Sequence to fold (206 residues):
Amino acid sequence: MGKFFQPAPGFLVGCAICCGAGWAIVNWFDEPGAMGLAPWIIGVLPLSVLPGRIMPLDTDLSGEKRNHSMSKEKDDNYWRERLTPEEFHVCREGGTERPFSGEYWASFEDGLYRCRCCGEVLFDSESKFESSCGWPSFDAEAKVGVIAEQQDFSFGMQRVEILCANCGCHLGHVFPDGPTATGLRYCVNSLSVKHDPEREEGADKE
Fold:
């Protein structure tokens, strides 16, 4: 099962203990000039290597448990052979397409939206809405468990990344600012999904 880092309440306490240990070491050896520097070095080093505790990738935005397989047995070479460079960057490397550039951001045709990589049904066109953000937006997943979520602290922000629970394809992010009853906005890259007008849930799945 995948995992993600989540800051733990006891983390700062651990850093404080490290600072105290550094201060004690400096006092013991009484090195000139080191009194003000060493404690900070010893105390801050853990910040770069221990950003938080490791949590299982099985909780959603509300903190509830989710069941999914997140099968990632196929390596990058497998996906490079089946995806365009742009699709690989978004789906397998967590990239983001430019806003208002995707195939589906302004499309509202009836049908299902499948994972670009494995064909899993992720969203229904009935849950798609106009959000003016430049990316396809949905207010719900096709069924509970097909979308995996994990904390994303990139670019100095705290967001919830969404992925295909079946293959780990990066889809985008989910935000608690949706205009419908669910209160959610699944902001999805067009390159991460494929529109299927046939509504045959079992078709075209790896």
Remarks:
- The CA atoms of residues 91 and 169 lie 5 Å apart.
- The chain has a mean pLDDT of 76.
